[in-house]
Structures are given as structure tokens and as C-alpha cells.
Request: fold
Amino acid sequence: MHSTVYRLAMVLHPRHKLNYFREHGWDDDWIKEAGRLFREDYAVNYAGEDEDGDEGSTESEVEVEGNGKLRIDNGR
Reply:
């Protein structure tokens, strides 16, 4: 079993993202859980912060697109 940190690192890796795992036959449950963990971590630790790391008044939304790329909409 892979740790949360491993999954987040692989999802954030510019060359891998989630699409890498789909292309190489990784288990769908593993891919979904990695995406879920990323969205949860982002929402808890980063959503609503501005570029300086200060709390902002906007809410951010993270979505995994069909091509495996992450889309972050922070309302700006």
C-alpha cells in the first residue's frame, strides 16, 4: 500500500499526473483515491490562500480533468 505522501507526490509530478497511471494500467481505485487525497489536501491546506500564503476570501475548487491534469479554480 502506498502512503498519502507518495500518492500526492506522484499526482503533482509534472511528468506523471493521474494520466500516467491510467496509461500504465494502475488500479482505478488507486487512481481515484490519489485524486481524492490531492483534492482533500488542497482544500484543507491551500484553498482560500492568496499567492503570498495569506488567508483570502475566495474559495478554490480542484478538479481532475479527463486528460489527467489538475484544474484549480480559485475564482480569480
The chain has one domain: 4-73. The CA atoms of residues 15 and 52 lie 26 Å apart. Residues 4-73 form one domain.
